[in-house]
TrEMBL record:
<keyword id="KW-0589">Pheromone response</keyword>
<dbReference type="GO" id="GO:0016503">
    <property type="term" value="F:pheromone receptor activity"/>
</dbReference>
<dbReference type="GO" id="GO:0005886">
    <property type="term" value="C:plasma membrane"/>
</dbReference>
<keyword id="KW-0297">G-protein coupled receptor</keyword>
<dbReference type="GO" id="GO:0007606">
    <property type="term" value="P:sensory perception of chemical stimulus"/>
</dbReference>
<keyword id="KW-1003">Cell membrane</keyword>
<comment type="function">
    <text>Putative pheromone receptor.</text>
</comment>
<feature type="domain" description="G-protein coupled receptors family 1 profile">
    <location>
        <begin position="22"/>
        <end position="285"/>
    </location>
</feature>
<feature type="transmembrane region" description="Helical">
    <location>
        <begin position="46"/>
        <end position="72"/>
    </location>
</feature>
<feature type="transmembrane region" description="Helical">
    <location>
        <begin position="7"/>
        <end position="26"/>
    </location>
</feature>
<keyword id="KW-0325">Glycoprotein</keyword>
<keyword id="KW-0675">Receptor</keyword>
<protein>
    <recommendedName>
        <fullName>Vomeronasal type-1 receptor</fullName>
    </recommendedName>
</protein>
<dbReference type="Pfam" id="PF03402">
    <property type="entry name" value="V1R"/>
</dbReference>
<comment type="similarity">
    <text>Belongs to the G-protein coupled receptor 1 family.</text>
</comment>
<dbReference type="InterPro" id="IPR017452">
    <property type="entry name" value="GPCR_Rhodpsn_7TM"/>
</dbReference>
<dbReference type="InterPro" id="IPR004072">
    <property type="entry name" value="Vmron_rcpt_1"/>
</dbReference>
């Protein structure tokens, strides 16, 4: 085994192990708070789904890529190969939709009472469960198309076959591939657009809130300013990390798809970038736990903060 293969195996295994442990530790923290009688917000359900999607994405991509880098070949049958690719695509899609849902519902929650979203404040939590179920159903159905051109062994017509290391991808004809690309890309673009809009709306609301707080006594502002800045920074880090990793991942994946014989370094780089957000997101969310020993954005629950937001 070459030194480069060992380095790639270390990178994949480290990313997978750290990411899975980070997500599971965040999930355990929620469970401990649940057993302690803590009352959760409705948006915490979104974070639970995000954690499950992150773990699914990391395991279904990181583990087989690590085994390939270590020199293992043909360790999956056709069913196992299709299942791993399918679950990875489902987890990736749900991770994206969960991040979008978190941003949108949070933007509605902290929006001023005189805004256009005021009427949705009381109704929005009722639709969280249904929106999460629809996101799972959406990507469960969309990802079925990937089963058509993924196989563990493919010997005929090798000109249109790409070796992904642990699976073979059979390139369909241009019409089918174009339709699949459109079906796969449209929901992603919609979710990314909604995420950017919701995050911008939250930042604008928090900026107005900060200006409002400057006219309050310093003794009351100091603690709130710290809480507010932490929440703002968490939103910026979470969304910017996702957008950057998603954009770079799309560029690398597109390069791997369009090239007839992509290099192994390009394939491995695309896989590492694809797992960067699921691995980093739990640590970004943990930052918000330090605000008040409660789930993310729980600072909005305080009565004083609610009163100030109503006046903005």
């Amino acid at each position: 085994m070459e030194a480069s293969d060992k380095a790639i195996a270390v990178m994949f295994s480290t990313q997978t192990l750290v990411g899975v442990l980070g997500n599971l530790s965040l999930l355990c923290r929620y469970m401990l708070l649940c057993f302690s009688g803590f009352s959760f917000k409705s948006t915490d359900l979104i974070l639970w789904h995000m954690i499950v999607a992150n773990v699914l994405t990391l395991l279904c991509k990181g583990v087989p890529q690590t085994m390939v880098a270590l020199g293992f070949k043909d360790f999956l049958n056709d069913f196992g190969c299709k299942l791993l690719v399918y679950l990875h695509r489902v987890g990736r899609g749900v991770c994206m939709s969960s991040t979008c849902s978190l941003s949108v519902f949070q933007a509605i929650t902290i929006s001023p009472w005189n805004s256009l979203w005021a009427e949705l404040k009381a109704e929005a939590p009722k639709y969280i469960s249904s929106s999460l179920c629809l996101s799972w159903i959406l990507y469960v159905l969309i990802s079925i198309f990937s089963l058509m051109y993924i196989s563990a062994n493919y010997k005929n017509n090798t000109k249109n076959v790409k070796d992904l290391g642990y699976c073979f991808a059979v390139r369909p004809d241009k019409i089918i591939y174009t339709l699949y690309a459109i079906i796969q890309s449209v929901p992603d673009l919609i979710f990314v657009g909604l995420m950017l809009w919701a995050s911008s709306s939250m930042l604008f609301t928090l900026h107005r809130h900060k200006q409002r707080m400057q006219h309050m006594p310093r003794t009351n502002v100091s603690s709130r300013r710290s809480t507010e800045s932490r929440a703002t920074e968490t939103i910026l880090l979470l969304v910017s990390t996702f957008v950057c990793s998603y954009t770079l991942s799309c560029m690398l994946t597109l390069s791997v798809t369009l090239l007839l014989n992509p290099s192994w370094s390009l394939v491995n780089m695309a896989a590492i970038v694809a797992g960067s957000f699921p691995a980093m997101s739990p640590f970004l969310l943990m930052r918000c736990h330090n605000v008040a020993h409660s789930p993310c954005f729980s600072w909005i629950k305080t009565e004083r903060m609610s009163i100030v937001l109503k006046l903005t």
